[in-house]
Amino acid sequence: MNALVVHDTQDSARRETGRLRYEILGPLRVTGPGSGSFIRAHKMQILLAVLLVRSGQVVPMHYLTDEIWGENAPRRSTAAVHVYISQLRKFLGQYGEGSSPIVTRPPGYLLNIDDGELDLRDFEKLVGLGRQQARAGQHEEAAASYAAALQLWRGPALGGLRDSRVVNAFAAWLDESRLECTEMMVESGLALGRHRSLISLLYSLVAQQPLHESFYRQLMLALYRSERQADALKVYQSARTTLRNDLGLEPCRSLRDLHVAILSGDRRLDLPAGAPRRG
Fold first, then answer.
1. Of 98 and 252, which is predicted with more confidence?
2. Number of domains in the chain
3. Is 80 exceeded by the pLDDT of residue 102?
């Protein structure tokens, strides 16, 4: 089994919970009391990832073989999956007592996990809490909830497993959820008057996500509120050039409207009355 698993002894404080935990907001990792492990064998990683993505559902055998091998499944692929399942059960068994979370259920297998055992569920709860707080005007609390949600990420979701179609699709959805959370965190920060402190982050986000128009909008607004009107207009021109060159499109209406509002010095772009002015 040692040939299949890499143990990670860092960040042990988070693992002293006495329960199994699956982490997919980064490279796939399984943690237990005092330690965590990355599965080294790539096909076993894909198998566990697919079971996690479809947790609580029966995943048919043909579905598993297709995700692991694609169109190049070997003649004895079904037997190989049985072996991988057996190894996964032993691997997961080192962290807990009782029955295996992987259940044989014709025509395939099912993974039973609780919400508290998957980092994605914690992310979703924190994002949901942040949304509620933002709707209530509690932007300080909302920004903190969004920041806590983003701290759960250790890198690209399910990194290194994008060759599986179902994992790739699920990871793409996770990436979008991460971007949305970041956008909402910045929005709450702007509502709190943190425009100056957000400029560096937003320039970085624009560089990383050059087709994500919301980050351009937020950067333009942050620059304008920081008395950098010329820089805000340059950001619009940069967005327009990028979108034209890459997609053959003009900026969306909200960007165009913001551009016009900045040119005219529209006072509606200022912080709302009563909002903190921290800069």
1. 252
2. 2
3. yes
Is 223 inside a domain boundary? yes
CA–CA–CA angle 164, 61, 177 (5° rounding): 35
Classify 36 as helix, strand or coil: strand
Instruction: For 105-155, write each residue's pLDDT tens digit.
Output: 999 999 999 988 999 999 999 999 999 999 999 999 999 999 999 999 999
H-type alpha helices, the chain: 42-53, 61-69, 77-93, 119-135, 139-150, 165-191, 195-208, 213-225, 229-247, 253-263
* Cα separation, 115 vs 55, whole angstroms: 10
What is the SS3 assignment for 247? helix
In a domain, 170, yes or no: no
Within 10 angstroms of residue 169's Cβ, the number of other Cβ atoms is: 12
DSSP per-residue letters across 90-126: HHHHTT--SS-SEEEETTEEEE---GGGBHHHHHHHH
Full domain range(s) for residue 236: 193-279
Is residue 202 assigned to a domain? yes
- The pTM (predicted TM-score) of the whole model is 0.89
